[in-house]
Amino acid sequence: MIILKTKKQIQYMKKAGKILASCHKEIAKMIKPGITTWDIDKFVEKYLYSHNAVPEQKGYKDYKYAICASINDEICHGFPRKKPLRNGDIVTIDMVVNLNGWLADSAWTYGVGEISLEAKELMKVTKEALYKGIEKAIVGNRIGDISYAVQYYAEAKGYSVVRDFVGHGIGKKIHEDPQVLHFGNPHRGPRIQEGMVFTIEPMINVGSRKCVMNENGWTARTEDGKLSAQYEHTIAITNDKPLILTEQ
Ligand code: MF3
Ligand code: CO
């Protein structure tokens, strides 16, 4: 069941999104060779609490951290760790912010120091694929139009699209209907209506789209060890253009 949000509720979610976006801006400044994702996790926790917000991922299904931090071939749900980031790494930081019971969710991939051309190009195309999807998030279209636009763009550029993880409705809970796949046929799925709020969060790989699961039961990485990137926004459907609630 898709829970439509009122304009007022969307404004509440936008406030959560604004804190999330400014937190990502701070993270962007911190990311350098030598810093650990453990430090970033601690920073995020403090940052959110000091803005009267709560890191929603912590305690969600026994997840222990404020952020997911997925490095290089890790696709998503990487655990923060005490190992320093190295020059040339890429790291996706994903988090969900709860402000007064309303949530926002956004992930961003960052380059550490000087990164390869391969990594830069992957990040660029992944971000563009997200925005191709957002463009289709308008009243009258269907969710499948978003899915198709993301997949078409990424694959035309020679990349593969992860199928095991999908975008989702969001509101007072992290995961609501509808599911937003990043692959599939246009003109399919639920019609997009004013008041829908959901994430679009493509995970795009340099090589194979297939995932393997770590022993920790959470972290997915690419089966071939090649790079993966992800960008995610929470968006609200209006009668006009989609409203990006987590824009930086
Ligand atoms: N932020 C994630 C998403 O994009 C949800 C994280 S699951 C958690 O769907 F368990 F790590 F919190
Ligand atoms: Co997320």
Instruction: Give the CA-based shape.
Output: globular
In whole angstroms, how far apart are the ends?
30 Å
- Give the amount of beta strand, in percent: 25-35%
Mean pLDDT: 98
CATH architecture: Alpha-Beta Complex
Structural class computed from helices and strand pairing: alpha+beta
Question: Which compounds are bound in this model?
Answer: 2-amino-4-trifluoromethylsulfanyl-butyric acid, cobalt (II) ion
Whole-angstrom Rg: 17 Å
Discrete helix count: 4
The poorly predicted ranges are none
What is the chain-wise order of helices and strands?
A: HHEEEEEHHEEEEEEEEEE
Structure description:
With 248 residues, the chain is α+β, with helices and mostly antiparallel strands. The protein has one domain (7-244): Creatine Amidinohydrolase (Alpha-Beta Complex). 29% of the residues lie in helices and 25% in strands. The chain has helices at residues 7-30, 37-50, 117-135, 143-156, and strands at residues 54-55, 67-71, 74-76, 90-99, 102-111, 160-161, 167-169, 176-180, 197-200, 203-205, 211-213, 220-222, 228-230, 233-236, 243-244. Strands 1, 2, 4 and 5 form a four-stranded antiparallel β-sheet that branches. It has a three-stranded antiparallel β-sheet with strand order 3-12-11, with no helix packed on it. Strands 6-10-13 form a three-stranded antiparallel β-sheet, covered by helices on one side. Strand 7 and strand 8 (176-180) form a beta hairpin. The protein is globular. It binds 2-amino-4-trifluoromethylsulfanyl-butyric acid (MF3) and cobalt (II) ion. Residues 94, 96, 105, 107, 201, 232 line the site of cobalt (II) ion.
